[in-house]
Amino acid sequence: MTTSKQKVDTEITKKDLRKVFWKSLPFEISWNYVRQDHMGFAYSMSPIIKKLYKTREDRAAALKRHMEFFNITVYFSTLVLGIVTAMEKKNAEDGKEFDATSINNIKASLMGPLSGIGDSLFLGTLRVIAAGIGASLAMKGSILGAILFLILYNVPAFAVRYIGMMQGYKMGTSFLDKISESGLMDKVTKLTGILGLMTIGSMVATMVVMKTPLTFGTGSAITKVQSILDSIMPKLLPAMITGVIYWLLNKKIKTTTILILIIAFSIVCAYFGILSA
């Protein structure tokens, strides 16, 4: 049973949520090609982790949990941060009764759908409209063009980020309470894990580029090796190279070493005409 002292220690206030919101503003400043927004997410969660976990080991485990791969349209990052804050609170209160792996499962399952909405809404629509209005004024020599562009784009963007933080936490709290009472936590964990793997799989198919220009035969009978591979399974080579990299990571080989191996492998294969862009 949770004691009254524990309840006070794990109480998340609006002040705590605002701390996460402010820390999320430089969310993409540490973006990288390996795990993308992982450091921004962990940094944003640091006030919550510091409040919820009292031992050095628990805090380290929580930070390590959020150093996994994560990528999302930054304007919806706070929505996920709010939901994850509620999950971290539940984890701190329930201890071993709560499956901490479900936290990363939820993150992985949300980043794909939310990024699709965020890119379409902000980058594909709002930015274009704001830029069009701002440019039309700027072409007339008015400084209001730049000012209006910044206002039209950033006010909605900041509003969505702030509201997302607050509502994400509320949604997460009520959702976790309901599934805990109904005993659905194990099923939700499994389903979000499957959805998360599907999201990562789709990213492999769209973001990993690997083709071969090799052919055999002559004249009209020439056959492209890439066509044969695509007939077996589309994106077979990207899936294979991803599997090899995953195997190397499981062997505890450093990321920098793997990157150097990839660069060397790509240069050699390109030189001998085995692979192409």
Automatic annotation (TrEMBL):
Q: Where are the transmembrane segments?
A: 69-87, 143-164, 191-212, 232-249, 256-274
Mind listing the UniProt keywords for this protein, alphabetically?
Membrane, Transmembrane, Transmembrane helix
Query: Known Pfam families for this protein?
Result: EIID-AGA
Q: Which GO terms describe its biological process?
A: phosphoenolpyruvate-dependent sugar phosphotransferase system
Q: Does the keyword Heme apply?
A: no
Keyword Amino-acid biosynthesis tagged: no
Identify the InterPro entries for this entry.
GatZ_KbaZ_carbometab (IPR050303), PTS_IID_man (IPR004704)
A Gene Ontology cellular component where this protein is annotated is:
plasma membrane
PANTHER family associated with the record = N-ACETYLGALACTOSAMINE PERMEASE II COMPONENT-RELATED, TRANSPORT PROTEIN, PTS SYSTEM
Q: What is this protein called?
A: PTS system mannose/fructose/sorbose family transporter subunit IID
